[in-house]
Design brief:
It is built from 9 helices and 11 strands. By secondary structure, the protein is α+β, with helices and mostly antiparallel strands. The longest helix has 15 residues. InterPro entries: Acyl_CoA_acyltransferase, GNAT_dom.
Amino acid sequence: MLNNEIYEEYFLNASISTFNINIGGFVSKYWGIDISSNCIFPIYEKNDPQIDKKISEIENFLLEKDIVPIYRIVYQDNYQKLDRVLFNKHYEKVANNIVLACPLQGKKNELFKFADFNESGIYIDTEITGGDGFLEDYFYLRKISKNDQIIFNTAIDICPLKKYSASLLEEGHLIGQAYFIRQGDVVIIKDIVISTKYRGLGYSSKILYSILTYCLKNGAELVIAEIPTDNENVMNLFGNNPMFFKLYDIFYRQLIKNTKGRFIFD
């Protein structure tokens, strides 16, 4: 298995979805609230000679549940056959993201130099559970629908990994929040959100660096994140950040419908 697929396992395990099923080495995550928790991770058996049959089996399973199949594709050689098959079966690209990493070894001086400033006003909760106060505030900041709130509250409790939150307050006002997940010595940053009226003031960087400092203090060795390439603010926060470097590119392919609203099949 290539190194990138090791990281893909971290993202698979940290995907906040209500259900998952493994069909021939392709793990389908569904009933989550974002694309990474409603997609198929084809980590194993991508060169299966019966790959067409496997894709059809997954399609039938998901479409019966009114779920549109979406595949997560890594830009590397052993995904090319699968990508060609999906293209020929009318799956189109719907998102382009990159995966970034921040190795924490050797970052102590850099992070601890401004630790007092970065950690001021930051409150870390070491266990997120469905229905807790953090999630109520997070749903408000993200403007998440009531239905998606129910889904997320259920899914967050199903995820077996350690889940953390970070909240930034100033003079009693909630400025922003983040949540991240840890597996072993690797931390996956899932989201950082800032209240609308405080955006553009550097608060997202403050939260990010406080997370990195916390992770370093608590023995983590690597922090990774998946970010969209079409979001300028997120790209500036992570992609142009010297603490991070790019590991690899990914994109998503989704089964498309014809003009009559029906899914296209061969």
